[in-house]
Amino acid sequence: MVNLEILLQKIDKNRDFILVTHVNPDIDGLSSMLAFGFFLKHLKKNFYPVIERIPKKAEFLKGFEWFILPEQLPHLEKALVVLFDASTPKRLASNVAQRLTPFKDYVVIDHHQKEENLFEEDVLFIIDPNAPSTSALLFEIFKKLGIEITYEMAENLLAGLYFDTGGFRYENTKAQTFEIAKELCEKGANPSYIAKNLFEQISIEEVNLLKTILNRLETIKTHPFCVMSYLTFEDLEKNPVEDLSYLANFLRSLEGVDIAILVKEFEKGKIAVSLRGREPFEVLEIAKHFGGGGHRYASGFKLEEKDLQTFLFDLKKFMRGVYEKR
After folding, report:
1. Of the candidates 184, 200, 216, which is a domain's last residue?
2. Domain with 34 in it: what CATH number?
3. Enclosing domain of residue 180
4. Model confidence over 140-183: pLDDT tens digits?
5. For the whole model, what pTM was predicted?
6. Cα gap 110→160, rounded to integer Å
7. Burial (CB count within 10 angstroms: exposed 0-12, middle 13-18, buried 19+), residue 151
């Protein structure tokens, strides 16, 4: 794996580390931050896992108490910033990005397709789009560097792997995925504990939103079978939920569905769209068309739109023109 010698040099010459992930952080990014934190702790380095808000859903992760908000980051003259599960600063939450402006040295560890380099700072990219998760990539980095993986690191890495493969159900699940999971379990990770915390903690608010989504579910086209639903700002305000990925994934799980789209008006005039595809119907290029990104079968994008209903009409029209040759 390229760049690992440079990574070691950067770790060796720095005392302070700021660990970050993308906006609306998921378990893969969060667990990778904390696993890397345990590694830095062993080296007696100072590290600060900074996130936009403290997510209740991640309380089961080892080292959860280390997370801090951007305003809690102490003044540092110099620090190495390590970005997990994203490869561009535009994926950072605005309050996190603002606190990082003084720092000029970055490492990116990610398993998404590399996006356009928008960094003005010195950046070391360690990216493998073939890895099933960023946590899996981090596991491979630790192994190649001969770093001992502790029980806490293993538990967090398995959580990230399990989350990003949908409990080993998604298309990114390969033979290598199970090899990694096996080794992490041998290090002490508890798959049952992780699965319960990831997929058996559905809140009443999520149930309410799911009912709303199903009531508004609409078939956009039949070949491929594409469905779409939406949530308004008022829906989300009434039922606050940290992570809506479960709802988008649920739509894809419906029998016969090839492509599922969930539109969320997370602020007035601001819209987020989750795209989910079932093999062979990839959705990454659709997300890129609107300035977004992600994976081949799980992607998304954000836009500023004054009127939600107008956007829904335009998106339906666009989607009906996709895959016309199939």
Report:
1. 200
2. 3.90.1640.10
3. 1-200
4. 999 999 999 999 999 999 999 999 998 998 888 999 999 999 99
5. 0.85
6. 12
7. middle
